[in-house]
Amino acid sequence: MRIVAKSPMPGFALSAGLVLSLLSLIVLLPIGALLVRGAGMGLTDLATAISGERVRSALLLSFRSALIAAAFNLVFGVLVAWVLVRYRFPGRRLIDAAIDLPFALPTAVAGIALTALYAPNGVFGQIAAEAGLRIAYAPPGILVALVFVGLPFVVRTVQPVIAEVDREVEEASATLGASRLTTLRRVVAPVLMPAALTGFALALARGVGEYGSVIFIAGNLPMKTEIAPLLIVIRLEEFDVDGAAAIGIAMLGISFAMLLLINAVQVWSRRRIGHV
C-alpha cells in the first residue's frame, strides 16, 4: 500500500530526508536531550526542583506577562493591520516599515532603549511617575518589552488576510440591513480569526521565551520581576544543570498545552467558516 501519493514532481525522497534531518537536528534532538535529562532526575527530584517558590514565581510571571502581552497584541495588532490595509494616509509606508523594527533590532538594544524611555528618569517614565505609576524595574516594564517584540507577529500574520477580504461581501451585508458591528462580528471576524490566532500563538511563544529585551527593563528581583528564562541562566551559572533542565521542562510542558489549545481553537474556527 502506497503511504505517500505519487507526485509528478521528482525529488520527494531527497527533500523529505533533508526536512527530517534538519527537523531532528534543530528541534527534536534538543527537546529529546532536555527530556532525557529530566527523566534521569526522577519524578521526585523534578517535582522538587519545579515546586520551589522562586521557580513558581518566575514561571507565573513569564506566562502571565506573555499571555497579557499577546492578548493586547491580538487586539491592537489587528487594528493596526486593518488601518494599514484599508486606509491611505501620509506616513502609512513609514509606519508599515516601522512594524518590522522589532524583527531587525537586537533584543538587547531594544531592552536598553525601552529602559531609557521608561526608567524613572526617562521621557515616559517621568510622566508615569507623576501619575504614581512605575513601569521600568516592575512587572509593567516586562509587559512593555513583550508587547514591543510581539506586535509584528500579529500584524504581519493578519495583514494579508485583510487584503484578501472581499469588500463586496461587506457591502452585501450592509445592503441586507446589517449594522457595521454586525458585519464586523458575523462577516469579517470569522475570516480573520484563524490568522489572528496564529499571530497570537507566535506572539505568545516569543513572549514566553523572550530574554534579551526583558532583563534590562525588568529589574530581575527574585520572586518579583525575575522571569523564567533568566532563572534558567542563573541555574546554569550556578552549575545546577538539573535545576535548569527542570525549569525548561516545565516551560516546555506549559507552552505545549497552551499551543495545543490555541491550535484546537484555530481548527474549530476554520471548520466554522468552511476552510477545513
How would you summarize this macromolecular structure in one to three sentences?
This is Sulfate transport system permease protein CysT. This protein is an all-alpha fold and 276 residues long.
Q: Helix- and strand-based class?
A: mainly alpha
- Kindly provide the name of the CATH class of the domain at 44-155 and 193-273: Mainly Alpha
Terminal CA distance: 26 Å
Shape: globular
Q: What would you say the CATH architecture of the domain at 44-155 and 193-273 is?
A: Orthogonal Bundle
How many E-type strands?
Answer: 0
Largest sheet: none
Give the radius of gyration.
22 Å
Weakly predicted, low-confidence segments: none
Beta content comes to under 5%
Number of helices: 13
The CATH superfamily name of the domain at 44-155 and 193-273 is MetI-like
Q: Overall mean pLDDT score? A: 87
Subcellular location: Cell membrane
Subunit structure: The complex is composed of two ATP-binding proteins (CysA), two transmembrane proteins (CysT and CysW) and a solute-binding protein (CysP).
Membrane topology: Multi-pass membrane protein
Pfam families: BPD_transp_1 (PF00528)
Provide structural commentary:
It is a multi-pass membrane protein. One of its GO terms (cellular component) is plasma membrane. It is found in: Cell membrane. Part of the ABC transporter complex (TC 3.A.1.6.1) involved in sulfate/thiosulfate import. The chain crosses the membrane at residues 62-85, 97-119, 131-155, 187-205, 244-265. Helix content is 79%, strand content 0%. By secondary structure, the chain is an all-alpha fold. The chain has a domain at 44-155 and 193-273: MetI-like (MetI-like fold, Orthogonal Bundle), CATH 1.10.3720. Helix 6 (107-118) runs parallel beside helix 11. The chain is globular and about 65 Å long. It starts with 11 loop residues before the first helix and ends with a helix.
